[in-house]
Every structure is written in structure tokens, then in C-alpha cells.
Amino acid sequence: MCCSPSANNSALEKFDDHLRLAVTSITDSALSDAQWLQASMPIKHGGLEIRRVTSLAAPALLDLAASTLVLQEQILAQFRCPRDSFLDSYLSPWSTSAGPPPDPLPSKQSFWDNPGLQADRALIENSFVEPSQKARFLASLAPHSGDWLLALPIANCGLRLDDEAVRVAVGMCLGLSLCVPHSCPCGEQVDVQRLHATVCKKCQVESPDTKS
User: Fold this and answer.
1) How far is CA 100 from CA 38, 56, 71, 84, 88, in A?
2) Using 50, 70 and 90 to split pLDDT, how confident is the model at 209?
3) 80 or 39: which carries more pLDDT confidence?
4) Contact 207, 182 (CB under 8 A)
5) Backbone phi, psi, residue 94, to 5°
6) Cβ contacts of residue 146 below 8 Å, gap of 6+?
7) What is the DSSP string of 130-197?
8) Of the candidates 56, 83, 39, which has an alpha carbon nearest to the alpha carbon of residue 175?
9) How far is CA 192 from each of CA 53, 178, 186, rounded to the nearest angstrom?
10) What's the pLDDT tens digit per position in 71-114?
11) Which residues pair with 202 in a beta bridge?
């Protein structure tokens, strides 16, 4: 994606569809569009860092083109070469949505990526219908809330999560259905998101039919 102008290639969407199916299979859950969008966000933005290639194609090429402009000019100084038309074609829609970039062009991909991330975050937040959904998303943005995704899975150090623990952690991050509604031994009802287990000492470790 850094070296090839692929932002409009239909194969990128097919690749993203396979990524989404993989996450669905691993978590044993059906992801809504908003949940898949959150999963594709960087960890510090409340996601799982499973980046969609459709969102990265343009920032990746813009980053490489901007960071090598000076070198290109030095190499091609004695030759008459047309301006990079691909760079112009990528800059135009980016500038339309995010405003004109500074001169010289920034050489950090995060700069080119940020407007798209902010737009995706707005879509995620606009999908909320319950206050608890917003609270969950804000919790995923808190410092260190995604550190478990960065830990090396070393069993001897107690850092390796089993499959069910990963499924529950992902489910709580994205708001997935983790179990069927049932009664807790304390008498309270446990909903599909199983949040009651985080506040009740009597809640079963393994809820009935934990898989959604």
C-alpha cells in the first residue's frame, strides 16, 4: 500500500471482508458494522488494531510520497519529470475532507491517518442508542485499557489468556453478546453482555451457554 496506488482497488474491500469474518469466527460473535469499525481502530482509539486496508491505503501512500519528496527531487534534479500524479490524486480528496496540508508535507502516517480515524469515531459514537454503549466506548479509550492486547502471551509469567478469556475481553471491549440471559445466584438477572459478573462475587464463572 505504501508503494502502490491501491486506494480505489475493489480487492481491498474483499480483504477487509475476510478480516471481518476472521474476527467473527475467533470471537464466536456476529459483529455489527459499528462494532467492526471499532475493532479496526488503533488500540489507543478504543479498538483492537485490526486495521482495515481500505482505510490505510491512502494514508500509507501519502506518507511514503511525502517523506521521499526531497530525495526524489535530488535524484531527478537533472531530468524533466512530471509531478507525481498519484500524489496529487490522493491529496485532492484528503484536502477536501481535512483541509489543506501544511508545507512541507508531513512525513508521518499518523498525520494522514488521523482525519479518517476521527470520521470513523464519529460514526461509532453516532451508532449508540444506550448510555451504557457510550460508557463502554469511553472506557475503551482510557489509558492502559488496551494494554492486554500488547502483552506477550507468555504462559510462565501468567500473561497467556485462554480462548474464552480473549473472547470475553473482546466482547466487553466491543459490546458483543457473551451469553444468554440468565439468573445469577444472587438473584439478579444477567444480560447478554454479562456485565453483572464484574460487580457480583456470586456470579458464576461459567454462565449457562456462554457462547452467543
Assistant:
1) 27, 19, 23, 18, 12
2) very low
3) 39
4) yes
5) -65, -45
6) 43, 44, 46, 140, 173
7) SHHHHHHHHHHTSTTTTGGGTS---GGGT-PPPHHHHHHHHHHHHT---S--EE-TTSPEE-TT-GGG
8) 39
9) 31, 6, 17
10) 877 887 777 766 777 888 888 889 988 999 998 889 889 999 99
11) none
pLDDT tens for each residue of 102-159: 988 898 899 999 999 999 999 999 999 989 899 999 999 999 999 999 989 899 988 8
75 three-state secondary structure: helix
The predicted-structure confidence for 8-25, as pLDDT tens digits, reads as follows: 888 999 999 999 999 999
pTM of the model: 0.81
Give CA–CA dist 193/43, Å, rounded: 21
Q: What is the structure's pLDDT at 75?
A: 82
Judged on CB neighbours under 10 Å (0-12, 13-18, 19+), 161 is middle
User: What is d(CA 15, CA 202) in angstroms, rounded to the nearest whole number?
Assistant: 44
65 within 8 A of 86, measured Cβ to Cβ: yes
In the numeric block, which cell numbers belong to residue 123? 460514526
User: What are the residues whose beta carbons fall under 8 Å from the beta carbon of 178, sequence distance 6 or more?
Assistant: 29, 167, 168, 171, 172, 192, 193, 194, 207, 210, 212
Cell matching residue 51 = 486495521
Q: In the 8-state DSSP scheme, what is residue 68?
A: T
pLDDT for 135: 92
The number of beta carbons lying within 10 Å of the beta carbon of residue 197 is 19
Q: Residue written as cell 444480560?
A: 191
